[in-house]
Amino acid sequence: MSDEITLTGLTVFGRHGVYAHEREEGQEFTIDLRLRLSLADAAASDDVEDTVHYGELAESVAAVVAGSR
Q1: CB 27 within 8 A of CB 3
Q2: Residue 5: what are its φ and ψ, rounded to 5°?
Q3: Contact by Cβ (8 Å): 32, 9
Q4: For all residues of the chain together, what is the average pLDDT?
Q5: What is the pLDDT of residue 1?
Q6: Looking at the whole model, is its pTM more than 0.85?
């Protein structure tokens, strides 16, 4: 059985898109993530190191979106 960590509503400014003006002017992107994984080790150990830090996950995703296209 897999567990889930859900991150919703992460809004990041980026310069991506199909059209040139989207890449030049930039725009906000709103990201929703659902991470499926086993949290059995974290539940057994009660150690945060055995799970995913959703704050660090959000920072990593934001860096990708805000980065180069």
Answers
A1: no
A2: -115, 125
A3: yes
A4: 93
A5: 64
A6: no
Listed in sequence order, the DSSP H helices in the chain are 20-25, 40-45, 54-66
pLDDT in tens, 12-33: 999 999 999 999 999 999 999 9
Provide the pLDDT for residue 23. 92
What does the radius of gyration of the chain's CA atoms come to, in whole angstroms? 16
Distance (Å, whole) CA 43 – CA 40: 5
To 10 degrees, the CA torsion angle through 31, 32, 38, 39? 90
Q: Give the span between the Cα atoms of 35 and 16, in whole angstroms.
A: 24
* Cβ-count burial 27-56 (b if 16+ within 10 Å, e if not): eebebeeeeeeeeeebeeeeeeeebeeeee
Structural domains in the chain?
3-66 (3.30.1130.10)
